[in-house]
Amino acid sequence: MSSLADRIRGIVTTANPAARVTKESGISNAEPRDLSALGGTRCGDCFVVERRWERSVRHGRETIGAIAERLAHAAPYAPLFTASALARPPFVFFDLETTGLNGGAGTQAFLVGCGSFADDGSFMLRQFLLTASREERPLLETVAETLNGAGALVTFNGKSFDAPLLETRYLFHRLEWTGGGVPHVDVLHAARRFWNLDDCSLSSLEKHVVGARRVADVDGFEVPARYFQFVRTGNVQPLVAVLEHNRLDLLTLAALTSRLFHLARTGSAEARTAREALALGQVFARSGMDAQARDAFERAIALSAAPAGAFDATKIDALRALALAWRRVRQFDEAACCWRQLLDIRGCPPIVAREANEALAIHHEHRVRDLATAKTFALRGLNAAQPAPTSWTRAVHHRLARLDRKILRMEGLNFEA
Amino acid sequence: MRRLPPLSAQHLPFPPALDRRLTNALEGRGITQLYTHQAEAIEHAVAGRNVVVTTPTASGKTLCYNAPVLSAVLQNPSSRALYLFPTKALAQDQLAELQTMCEVLAAGSGDQIGVFTYDGDTPQDARRTIRARAHIVLSNPDMVHSGILPHHPRWAKLFENLRYVVIDELHAYRGVFGSHLCNVLRRLRRICRHYGSNPVFVCSSATIANPRELAERLTEQPFELVERSGAPRGEKFFLFVNPPVVNHQLGIRRSYLSETRRIASEFLKRDQQLIVFAQSRLSTEILTTYLKDDFEGVPGAPERIRGYRGGYLPNRRRDIEKGLREGAVRAVVSTNALELGIDIGALDVCVMAGYPGSIAATWQRAGRAGRRSGRSAAVMVASSAPLDQFVVRNPSYFFDASPERALIDPDNLHILVDHVKCAAFELPFTATEQFGRHDVQEVLGVLAEQGLVHPELRRSVLDTREDSAGGSSERERASEASGGGAPPDIEKWTWTNESYPADAVSLRSVSSDNFVVVDTTDEARVIGETDFTSGPATLHPKAIYIVEAKLYQVERLDFDGRKAFVREIDCDYYTDAITYTRVTPIDVFAQDHQKSHGEVHVVSRVVGFKKIKFYTNENVGSGDLDLPEQQMHTTSYWLTVPSTVMGLLPYADDRRDGIVALSFAMRQVAQLLLMCDRHDIGISIDSMEREAFLGAEAQSAKAAAERSSRIFIYDNYPGGIGFSAPLFDMHDELLARTRRLIAECDCESGCPGCVGPVGNTGPLAKAAALNILDLLISPTAAIEISREPGAEVQPF
Q1: Which of A389, A409, B145, B227 is most deeply packed, by most CB within 10 A?
Q2: Minimum-distance CB partner of A106 among B150, B414, B478
Q3: Strand-strand pairing, B349-353 and B376-381
Q4: Is B569 exposed, middle or buried (0-12, 13-18, 19+ CB in 10 A)?
Q5: For residue B28, what are the β-bridge partners?
Q6: Contacts of B94 (CB under 8 A, 6+ apart)
Q7: Which chain A residue's Cα is nearest to B156?
């Protein structure tokens, strides 16, 4: 009969062979737990690493100073990117490194990174590191002070991940989570619309939008393992790169935010791609800034590299958005012009074509009063889209019948005349 | 046949401690007094004593827990209660009733009482609202395990104010499921302690031998027992039917399914509404087919005969339940799925095709007929299985003996270790904390070796160091731990792994995976599902899959995608899978001559199937299959029949037959001795010949054990569930009783009632099995087994 520990060992290792850990990295508190390699200080019960990037330092295409300046100028436009109109400076850029991605009571935020721009244009960064689990409560209390001072939190995917996870930690310690009351800009949501990369990760955005390149970065999936290695051995070496990774993430987040807010302030003239202009137009349209929205859509159409009539998804979206924007301000001729251009594009999606034909039929029936053209568009709409909803098909037939009656009546009138 | 006389109701007034608003509301619904058992249970619960109520079906047990819970919420609106049901369907059933009560209460007092189900079907966006607004949460152990406890910070309000935990259908938590639940409750009480609450447990159970013991083992709390029902009961007739013998020589009786069909038909002709319980999904479908053939009207008419089993989609089930309550459905053929308290109204007759395997389950099923007053009947049709034959020949065993004990083994290391991980994830363990019978600190020590948890050192160690060394406490802490050689002064164990351990632990089966059945006859649509373990046996290619008498053939099994594609087919046979099982010992816990028990590795694989014709049960064909094998570690008892014994057998060719015959009989006896379900144990035999070329260890033993054989009786659950050690201890009794079973059977050379039907084994199997037993049981250990003092069962 084997000992209890041996039997448990048998169970644990057969169930989870991947988790087998060699003796060296087991429970040996042997190595000195020298945190100085991280370049931080103990501040009360918290371990804090502080860094400052001077305004002259470059991150990607821009200097820190330029990023700061643009952000400061564009601050009034921040509410365009939140559901809350209250977003205002100071902006606190905020990113967690966690012990797992699943959430739940056993997932901790072991590193809370907070960054903000100082008045002199430098970027100030504070990272709170959990060096023992008993320090979590004081750490959360200190972080709360920082977050409470924020006019808005800025994160990357923080609405679905960082904020709920941190909220759970506050709940765990029966502390009040104030983050819920601070306006929150989640740059991931905007990034998907503005930059539409296949892989809309922060590192892709950093490379393609910010133009920065990282050397020897840590892969996200390695992060928890590195922290656990530190916890078990006291060796801080694996954490050095994790802290740097977190800092660069925050810098890139700040650069992206600056770019977004800047575009909102300057309008579409600064847009570099059709996609950027289109997304900007959508942001304006949602906030009721109709003129700026139309400018942006026009700019998106102009930036489209596709020749007239060739398929371009961004151009189709922009034309449709522009048509709707014109119609909203009752500029029907301009709207009709957009709808026509849409119909000229090869491979225009049936659902959009149907909408365009319908809009043009209405336009010609009621405003231009060109019944024959109206009928042409109504018929084209019917032919263009086979799998149309029956209610819609019925409405078109209804329209055609009415047009025929009107045409007959008109012919009658002409005849009498 | 037995006649159970009618019983009249016995009443007591409302206990004064109940809130007046509640008693007024009850009076408004026509309830002016309580049955005695309700009053007793409520009194205990209100006074803060844990209580378990065992009463028959339809005796108003829900009020036993709803009354104290609602009263508590009325008196203090911050009070919370958690209800656990073994299935989601039962929770849904209760939701409607509770919500009606709460509406009446709200109309009277203006206070809204929030009642919500919280299970796997709860939409994500509704969960936050439920956490905030629910006074009463209706859930199941699986959801508490994987969805609530690991997220306890979000449920802080519930855990801070948890007054009652209600566990309905307590008897369902036996074996693995019960062992898991016990650990889930350990975790629950741990979280409650953290939030400063100490809930009272109110449990209800069907009749089992040990309701109080089970409740106390599950919750590790003392319990009061309320077992005398004050509810009225109508007159009831209980009949046992043994199908007539059609071939004396072979001991073959008329098929019990045909007999069940005949009896059900008689009742249906007299327009009695009835429920037929079958033993398996397959026999459920076969009986449904038979009864539909006999009684279903023209196609398109409302269905009067329905089937019911696990694997049907929820909508279909709700439809059948409603049809039964409203009387449109005249007969339902069901697996044990309808044994639990799903509301299907009062039926006239219950027919059981085969002995359900335990006394408790038989009463529970019989209770489905005759819920209120008036006459009712329950009929049990015995199959030719030894257990059935024993019960039908010895009715006093059933009527007069105590029902089975529900056993759990919460300290099964596989189960315990899994839950220690989950618990560590939820809340760090302190250095003095207990969790179960084993030393949890030792468990945590091993988990630390694996990097799953980390021992954090005590603060005071750091503080003293900090004073002397001025700040660089971390370094000191490390040298303290490594330098002195003294055991480190551990404060707590924290979870240091990125996984979410509850996801890897299923409370019910090897894996929480399942196979879905996709009908591709017209448009592809899902028509059913099957749990992972039984998937290969029921959904192998060319298998006939039956849903309420409609036949489908499996065209393709996508094993990795967990999908079976089926097409409707018209044929006159069904299929029965052939499974091959091999058991290999890994670790021997104890060994004494021929008997051993220990940890084993079980590999099973579906290797083929038989085609069996409806009605005649003729074997009309077969096929080979090549499907992936399924594996598990479990515990097993095994009997080694040494080569010396085998060599003494006069008939060399029949030695293996003898072993097969012996194993068949031993299995039946083991089931009776252990008082377990037939699915709880599995059996397998091997001979050392095969072992010889499998391992080096066996090689060396080859000479000695060349032709010895082993019979394994293993726990049919990963990790085992505590049957193998008792079986090891009962080894002598097991062999003696097996010998008596075989020796006293009237058949000539084997029958389904002793060593298995003749077709399974050769003509000399019975004699060989007896011979082996006689050689194993030494002459001094008298074959005669005198009546065991205190034994509850007198088999054979």
Answers
A1: B145
A2: B150
A3: parallel
A4: middle
A5: none
A6: B62, B83, B85, B138, B168
A7: A171
Q: CA-CA distances (angstroms) from residue B605 to A337, B506, B685, B712, B716? A: 69, 22, 15, 17, 15
pLDDT tens-digit profile of B177-229?
888 999 999 999 999 999 999 999 999 988 888 899 999 999 999 999 998 88
Q: Of A205, A240, A266, which residue sits at a domain end?
A: A266
Put simply, the answer to whether B425 touches A106 (Cβ < 8 Å) is: yes
Q: Residue A139: inside a domain, yes or no? A: yes
When divided into structural domains, chain A yields a total of 2
Angle at B484 between CA B478 and CA B485, to 5 degrees: 100
Interface size between A and B, measured as CB pairs under 8 A: 145
Last residue of a domain, one of A216, A248, A266: A266
ipTM of predicted complex: 0.84
Same-domain check for residues A209 and A325: no
Domain span at residue A226 reads: 24-266
Tell whether A330 and A394 lie within a shared domain. Answer: yes
The CA distance from B149 to B184, in Å, is 9
- The DSSP string of B287-352 is HHHHHHHHH--STTSPP-EEEE-TTS-HHHHHHHHHHHHHT---EEEE-GGGTS------BSEEEE
Residues of B within 8 A of A104 (CB-CB) are 150-151, 425-426, 500, 502
Q: How many CB atoms lie within 10 A of CB B509?
A: 16
pLDDT tens, position by position, A37-89: 888 888 878 899 999 999 999 999 999 999 999 999 999 999 888 876 688 88
All domains of chain B in start order, with CATH:
2-226 (3.40.50.300), 236-400 (3.40.50.300), 413-492 (no CATH), 514-571 (no CATH), 577-776 (no CATH)
Same domain, A248 and A291: no
Q: Provide the token pair at B55.
A: 């009463």
Note the pLDDT of residue B484.
36
CATH number at residue A72: 3.30.420
Rounded-to-integer distance, Cα A68 and Cα A261, Å: 11
- Kindly identify which residue of chain B lies nearest to residue A109, measuring between CA atoms: B498
Q: Where are the beta strands (DSSP E) in B118-209?
A: 136-139, 162-167, 200-205
pLDDT in tens, B751-792: 777 787 666 677 788 888 888 888 888 644 333 333 333 333
Residue with tokens 């889209």: A385
Are A276 and A390 part of one and the same domain?
Answer: yes
- Is residue A16 in a domain? no
CATH number at residue A351: 1.25.40.10
With bands split at pLDDT 50, 70 and 90, how would you rate the model's confidence at A30?
very low
**Residue B589 Cα, gap to closest chain A Cα (Å):** 5
Instruction: Pick from A248-262, A402-416, B712-726, B732-746 the range whose average pLDDT is largest.
Output: A248-262
Q: How many residues would you count in chain A?
A: 417
DSSP string, A346-395: TT--HHHHHHHHHHHHHIIIIII--HHHHHHHHHHHHHH-TT--HHHHHH
Answer yes or no: is A3 within a domain: no
Closest residue by Cα to residue B169 from B100, B264, B107, B88: B88
- Confirm if A9 and B449 have CB atoms less than 8 A apart: yes
Do A252 and A365 share a domain, yes or no?
Answer: no
Closest CA of chain A from B102, distance in Å: 30
User: For the segment B24-36, what is each residue's pLDDT rounded down to a tens digit?
Assistant: 989 988 888 999 9
DSSP annotation string for A162-175: HHHHHHHHHHHTT-
Give the other-Cβ count within 10 Å of B30's Cβ.
Answer: 6
Determine, yes or no, domain membership for A89.
Answer: yes
Q: A389 to chain B nearest CA, in Å?
A: 20
pLDDT computed for residue A9 by the predictor = 83
Please, what is the angle between helix B281-295 and helix B256-269, to 10°?
40
